[in-house]
Amino acid sequence: METARHDAWQAGDSYDAYMGRWSRRIAPAFLERVGATADLDWLDVGCGTGALSEAILARWLPRTLVGIDPSEGFVARTAAALGDQRTIFRVGDARDLPLDTASRDVVVSGLMLNFVPDRAQALAEMRRVARPGGRVGFYVWDYPGGGVEFMRAFWAAATELDPAAADLAEDRRFPFCEPGALTALATASGLTAVACAAIEAPTVFRDFDDFWRPFTLGAGPAPGYCVSLPPEARDRLREALRAQLPARDDGSIALKVRAWAVTGTA
What is the separation, in whole angstroms, between the first and last Cα of the chain? Predict the structure, then answer.
């Protein structure tokens, strides 16, 4: 995956607090669109902290499940949490998957593709390891459309205080995360019957501290930027967000996330 300024992908618990808990809201709806059945051989590319793998194991009863991720920290955490006789979690690169050609019935990926420098190669590898007629799918956040509202709020506040922060925001880094470009990528990889659909889920924070704390843990671009700030600048950013966020009477903050789910057939 891309090693970009302020990215940090080793602390599984920190990433879960920031993004993993919301990815878990999206994963089941995405898998419904994949259209797989039970007792199949699955591959989860970029398995991260296990949001997608967990949903596969819970609902789709796989014969086997292999999870691949470049982060040793993420792989260790996921193996400890989800490992059983059906599963193998290992360190690997999406651009050179360590699996045989036509060896998996279903190949999926969640929130991974935008971090791979060669997206076309990653999708070609996903198609390669899928059996003929197998299902291939992935989902990414709708960054250009502001689909991750808590992230959009963070970068908007950060940019007001530090205009240079705008260049680090995901909408500028990943402009291809929209239906036309995503569908074209999947089709170019050789997949057929490609479909793209939006999936939304609520992200309700208990209070401002529940919103703010994940940004102080350093796992991900926005948290990485946050912890890089001098303490005084970080305090200004925190108070700017506190003033701008739509808190309810009980202190909770109700926002939402939207992802684009792309599916096709090998």
Answer: 24
Torsion angles phi and psi, residue 37, rounded to 5: -120, 180
* pLDDT value of residue 198: 98
Q: Catalogue all structural domains in the chain, each as residue range(s) with its CATH number.
A: 12-265 (3.40.50.150)
Tell me: pLDDT of 3 over 60: no
**C-alpha span between 59 and 26 (Å, rounded):** 14
The distance from CA 189 to its chain's CA centroid, rounded to whole angstroms, is 20
Residue 255 tokens read as 């926002």
HEC secondary structure over 10-21: CCHHHHHHHHHH
Q: How many CB atoms lie within 10 A of CB 94?
A: 24
- Give the per-residue pLDDT at 13: 65
Percent helix, percent strand, percent coil in the chain, to nearest 5: 45, 25, 30
